[in-house]
What does this fold into?
Amino acid sequence: MKDFVLHFEKPIVELENKILEMRELAKSGDVDISEEIQQLEQKAVKLREEVFSNLDRWQRVQLARHPKRPYTLDYIEQMTDWFQEIHGDRNFRDDPSIVAGLGQIDGRDVAIIGHQKGRSTRENLHRNFGMPHPEGYRKALRVMKLAEKFNRPVLTLIDTNGAYPGLGAEERGQAEAIARNLFEMSQLTVPVVSVVIGEGGSGGALALGIADRLLMLEYAWYSVITPEGCASILYRDATLAYKAAEAMRLTANDLLELGVVDEILPEPFGGAHRDWKTTADTVRTAISKQFKQLEKLKPETLINRRIDKYGKIGVFEEA
Amino acid sequence: MSSWFKRDKENLKSSQKREVPEGVWAKCPGCETVLYSRKLERNFLVCPECGHHNRLPIGGYVDLLSDEKTFKELFGELKSLDPLGFKDSKKYSDRISAAMKKTERNEAVVTGEAALHGHPVVLAIMDFQFLGGSVGSVVGEKIARAVDYAVENKRALIIISSSGGMRMQEGILSLMQMAKTSARLTRLAKAGLPFISLMTDPTTGGTTASFSMLGDLNIAEPGALIGFAGPRVIKQTIGQDLPEGFQRSEFLKDTGFLDQVVPRLEVKQRIAEFLSWMTGRPTVLAEEAKVEGE
Ligand SMILES: [Zn+2]
It folds into this structure.
């Protein structure tokens, strides 16, 4: 995992490693190779530009799934002045695939809720690969209602393949839990800002995503189903996910054009995984700006605008 | 012959090819009794022998639930476009045209106002025949408008779901219809108006995970498949067969997610009673001769 490199990142990473090697060499050796190093550095910049200005949708999906990409807890660590995680839905159990808690960002008290993936196999088993059960969504809603009670805005970070499709999840009402969150989030009296930080997979993502403002990182994706799911249903072959990714138009740019996303947050060169701090700073600055604007609105205005915002989404013909 | 049966006869035939053979006689998939088709049809496709509920077309629900000649369709002019230019083995736009031709309807839901045993209601009836009852921009918009209409005219809302979930060919726009419909339903709730959700076979995916589960009362027909993930996906995930009756109406009632399982032939009366309790308005029994009198 430590050295995980995507196929299209490989030439860049190789070049960068070579530059590192030569710098080491320059430190110890007597020969002056600074010119060669400079040339290689220029070449690396050019190569990065080439690769990253021509990413197709499937490559973006892979970046969104990069195992070194920052997850919810990483953002929390980078962005908050203070944070305390709180646990459980008060009914069944604590679902570790959703992290929820009370925090402070840029001096503002907020509730923070987000999907949480794991990095190692062990972590992923614990976090269920960031795929929540109903109790995860119910915990999320409990914390949102807590925020509402104390008039604190809500920040949600979206990063899931989807809600978990299992026996227990169905028995405990996955559909009802998601539906309930959509309904209740629509009428929260406090501002809600959501950021798609990685994967926005289906209803499992949306269940944390009814917001006054929806922001999306540059290489995140968000759609009605995973590219694999779409491919296995419509093309009857999950290996055609790259085709489905293209057809579904699931990138940040696509969603901005379709009127779903309010703002795209640029990632550092090469993607969020290359520089967590810069990425988190971008996110922090953007959400603070949004909260500042939203805080001025009366609850009733806020709610009506939120409902009407979703009311406008959709494309159809009216004879 | 009832009008919906004439109108939807073709659909019925094509959809239930495996279950109800064409012609005068039909074999019940529940008990294998060979039945006279007209008898089955008079029974709203519920087997008189074993109670098996065959899938009923939209027109059937209109007749089942609305008092005679009270149904007036609303928002029927809305039609789907192809916002993503989506193509898999077929173009999405071709799929829409084919579904329109097959069902003789514009979309996967019909919305309208009616009287239900005298109660003023707005009905939204979904059609599994139309691209699997999938929810795209039009279905979302029609349900949202049905909610608005109910609020403006102080009517109760009844949604009859039958849907495989969100329409993949509209990508994120279809997912957002879950948000649109759920958000709009908060206004109905705020107005203190009833919403009864009736789920029929099948109701899955984002449909279940949005408006279908948000009724003041959630009821279902017997034996209907209802869930979030489809049984095949779950089976794949867990790598074992699903228990008998898993994700069927009765299972959902037992696990606490349905208020009642109501047989089709009793559902109008039951909804009327619920509405009377909720609104204080008396139930006015329409003559029940409709089924008999042809
Ligand atoms: Zn039978």
